Amino acid sequence: MVSGHTHICRTFEHEGRFFVNPGSATGAFTPLQSEVIPSFALLDVQASTLVTYLYRLVEDQVKVERVQFTKATSG
């Protein structure tokens, strides 16, 4: 599931599902956090595997984090 409301870039797995919050591409203000880091996410979906690339602008440097999630097969 992709959701954005908190402006906080993060991914997590919960009960076999993968959640992505791309954050805020502009680093827009949010009352939930005093300092918002500009960020966005790119998703690469291949069958049951999802690779997420999280891009963050930290101190004028673009940092990229790669997170992979593979959906469990039933059976």
UniProtKB/TrEMBL annotation:
<protein>
    <recommendedName>
        <fullName>Vacuolar protein sorting-associated protein 29</fullName>
    </recommendedName>
</protein>
<feature type="domain" description="Calcineurin-like phosphoesterase">
    <location>
        <begin position="2"/>
        <end position="47"/>
    </location>
</feature>
<dbReference type="InterPro" id="IPR024654">
    <property type="entry name" value="Calcineurin-like_PHP_lpxH"/>
</dbReference>
<dbReference type="InterPro" id="IPR029052">
    <property type="entry name" value="Metallo-depent_PP-like"/>
</dbReference>
<dbReference type="InterPro" id="IPR000979">
    <property type="entry name" value="Phosphodiesterase_MJ0936/Vps29"/>
</dbReference>
<dbReference type="Pfam" id="PF12850">
    <property type="entry name" value="Metallophos_2"/>
</dbReference>
<comment type="similarity">
    <text>Belongs to the VPS29 family.</text>
</comment>
